Amino acid sequence: MAEMKNFRVTQKKRESYFEMENSHVHDFHEIYYLVNGMRRYFIDDSIYTIKKGDVVVILKGTIHRTTYNNEKAHERMDCKFRTEFLKADEKLLRDFEAAFSGSPVISLAPAQRDHLAHILKGIRSEYENPDDMSDINARALIQCLMVFLIRLKRLQASPVGFDPDDSLMQEAARYIRANFASPLTLESIAAHVNTSPTYFSKKFKRATGFGCREYLVNVRLQEAAKMLLQTSLSITDIALECGFNSSNYFGDVFRKANGVSPAEYRKNNKLS
User: Fold this and answer.
1) pTM, full prediction
2) In whole angstroms, what is the distance from residue 228 CA to residue 264 CA?
3) Three-state SS for 147?
4) What is the number of other CB atoms lying within 10 angstroms of the CB of residue 70?
5) Going by fewer Cβ within 10 Å, which terminus of the chain is more open, N or C?
6) DSSP β-bridge partners for residue 34
7) pLDDT digit string, tens, across residues 78-129
């Protein structure tokens, strides 16, 4: 897929059993709207069952993965945009991030779905048929979309999409996140939730879409990325603080995940 500049809107139909090939962390916000079907979404350390008419807001830097929920095909629309594209409206960005941090799913009534789809189609038109006014109109439409979702979120009575059957795996994911700097093993994590390593490994993969070690490495990389930008610690110290055995190994997995070395990431993203 081509490098995204400021924004992008796509609409796709997927066959049954589709799932993301790799774990996912990106440097932009994403608004995912499920037009039809059902999906399972693992976001940071929580598992959600997403149904027709649900919207998932995935903030930048958030570990996530979507997997199939049943045998049926699904259709989705999503809007991706960089925060820099809206930097002139910092309050809106703060309110949007506050609304969906830790509680990323809302359910829409039929009339609300029509309104959402109308806005998304407008942004998509600007993306697919650009001219010298497209960024201006797309920015305005994205702002309208954000305001619409913030208002709906504030009216939502309780969290949406949690599956009680996955509570044990959510507990495991939260344990990994809380102890990512420790020398965790499959055996120690399975023991924490009172299951055998074999059972836990299969259940965690099915529930989250991640292998246990894959998720642990992703959490460590997420925390390391934050430390690269928020501290002046050396790359070696950050690697050790985040549970990596060596700075060389850390550098290799960081580059594979982000496309740049830790030093380049710090230089490219450091606030002026």
Assistant:
1) 0.78
2) 10
3) helix
4) 12
5) C
6) 76
7) 999 999 898 778 899 999 999 998 889 999 999 999 999 999 999 999 999 9
164-269 folds as Arc Repressor Mutant, subunit A (1.10.10)
Q: How does residue 267 score in pLDDT terms, banded at 50, 70 and 90? A: confident
> Average pLDDT, stretch 222-248?
93
Q: What is the DSSP letter of 84?
A: G
Would you say residue 63 has pLDDT above 70? Answer: yes
Please give the CATH architecture assigned to the domain spanning 7-155: Sandwich (2.60)
The pair of three-digit structure tokens given for residue 160, joined into one six-digit string:
């949406």
Residue 79's beta-bridge partner residues? 9, 31
For residue 65 the two structure tokens come to 């993965």
**Cα torsion 41, 8, 225, 101: sign:** negative
> E strand or H helix at 216, and its extent?
helix 212-230
**Distance between CA atoms of residues 78 and 69, nearest Å:** 19
Cα four-point dihedral sign 191, 239, 205, 25: positive
Distance CA 64, CA 46 (A): 9
For the record, the structure tokens of 21 come out as 């090939």
Q: Where in the chain is the domain with CATH 2.60.120.280?
A: 7-155
State the residue for tokens 């246990």. Answer: 212
